[in-house]
Every structure is written in structure tokens, then in C-alpha cells.
């Protein structure tokens, strides 16, 4: 069975590529979804039969619980609420990315990993993962009208955002250089989460789909970073596909709205942007 | 394994180019389902979550974090694929 593992990665990577390819035309789109589903199934089976995996109880319970939450979420959401559903599903995925990164970080919190590539990759992964998580929650709240969909701005916003982002990056770098400083770790997570919120509150509700596409791209890059850290090529491929496609989709959507990319990302600061 | 393996970078770059090429020509009609599909594919991180949770000698902390991660990734995965499918069902009459 173990010999199957590397092939599982190849098969599911190919199926993911086919899924995106078929997805680009309405007549083959549903076939694309099937390809993606089969690819995911192969990936999961491949992960389960790894010889490192010895305990299945928790995994099975978690998967059943996840399905029990995910299925109603997909079925009960009205079709008009699609963008926010994607956003909330995204928040879950990004949280998973962040938590995996955290577990891996604690595994590598030893002096011998100081400054190693693995820890750098993990820090990058967690930064993107956690910020995508809160950013997606805010995107969801804005689209669901749980909070005002108008851009939220306050004086000195750019400076505050810049300081928070910089602080997160600096602490991440400190942890990568010396992973034994575990007391800094919660601060790093908190700053990444906070930056996710700050990043999205100044963006208006109408621009949210673009933001969600961009967050898709971040989640993809985070998955890739995790692949680099864990030495898993499937994660690298799937993450790169998502990263690239999410980004290009965000750019296409901006063009469709006749807006520049920078305008959507930074235009919300201070003023309501004229279309 | 403490340095960047160039093989991985190679794989990453090629996959990123494939991603760009595939999406460049997608019809605007399919933007939402596509976003939903890439969202579902991002749930592939469940692979990492499974490894962490089930690993031999996993610490209680790793198991707890892994457990939540498997749960979250499954929610993302299931709802991502199902909603994509639901969206596409609406297209069917037009597609045929």
C-alpha cells in the first residue's frame, strides 16, 4: 500500500489540473468538479495509507464532524448567498492551514532548526493562513450584512496596518531565526489574525468577490508553503494552482469592473471609491 | 532537509504557470464556480492535517491542533465541492 503514496500525489495533482481545465468551459464544468472530487479522494486515501499514520480514530471523528457541518452549509445556503458561503468555507480552510502550521512549529521549536528553511516556510504559511482566516470571516460578515458593507476607515489607518503587518513579519522572522522562543508565538498568531481584519475592513462590499478571489490565492500560497515545509509535492502543486488561478481571477474580475487592481486593494482607504 | 530543495521550487513554478494558463481564458460566466472550485481544492491541506493527527508519537497538542485542522479542512472540502456542483446545476440547460 505504501508504494501507492507517491502515485496518489501524481494522480490527484493531474486531476486537479484537469478540474481547472474543464472548469473553464460551461459544457465541461461539471466534469471538472468530478475530477476535483476524485482527485481529493485519491489525495485523502494517499494520506491515510502513509506508514507514518498510525491512529485513525481522531481523523475519522474529525472528518465525520466536518462533513456534518459542511453538507448542511452547502445545501441550506440560498443560491444568492454564494459569495459569502465561499468566504466562510475559506475561513475554515485557512484556519486549518494555520493550525497545521502551528502544530508543525511546535514540533520544530528546537535549537537545531534555528534559521532552517522549514521554519521560514512555516512562518510564511501561518502568516498567510491566519490572516486569510480572519479576512475571510470579515468578508463573510460584510456580504451577509452582519456588519456594514461600507468601507470602514479611521485616521492613521495605513500607518496602523503597516505597523501591524511589520510587527507580524518581524516576530515571524525572530521565531524563524530562533524557534525556541515559543513565548513569542501567540503574539505572532494574534498579529496575523489582526492584520487579516484590518486588511479587509476598509474594502467595500461590492469589491468583496475580488477580495475573496485574492484570499483564495493567499490560501493557495499558504498550502504551497506547507508543501515546501512538509516536503509534500501534492500540496505544492495544488497550492500553486490555487495561488496562480486565484490571483489571475482577481485581476480579471477587477478588469471586468473597469477598476485597477491597486484601486480595489488600496482604494478603500479613506474614501469611498468612485467607480 | 533544512535548506530549500530546488526540486520543490521547480514543481511550484511549473504548477503556477499551468494555473495562470488555465484561468486566463475562462468565461466570466464561470468566475463564481471557479472561485468555489479553487476554494475546494485548497482543502487539500487536509493531507497535512491527517499526517499531523495520525502520526506515530504525535504530542497531545499536535493531536488537538490536527483534529481541529482535519475538521476545518473537511468542512471546506465538502461544502466547497457541493456548492460548486449546485452552482453548475443552474447552468445545465444553457450548457446543453
From TrEMBL, chain B:
Protein's UniProt keywords contain Cell membrane: yes
Record InterPro entries: NADP_transhyd_a_C
Gene Ontology biological process terms from the UniProt entry: NADPH regeneration
Protein keywords: Cell inner membrane, Cell membrane, Membrane, NAD, NADP, Translocase, Transmembrane, Transmembrane helix
Subcellular localization(s) per the UniProt record: Cell inner membrane
EC numbers on record: 7.1.1.1
Reaction catalyzed: NAD(+) + NADPH + H(+)(in) = NADH + NADP(+) + H(+)(out)
Cytoplasm recorded as keyword: no
Enzyme kind, highest EC tier: translocase
Protein name: proton-translocating NAD(P)(+) transhydrogenase
Source organism of this protein record: Sphingobium chungbukense
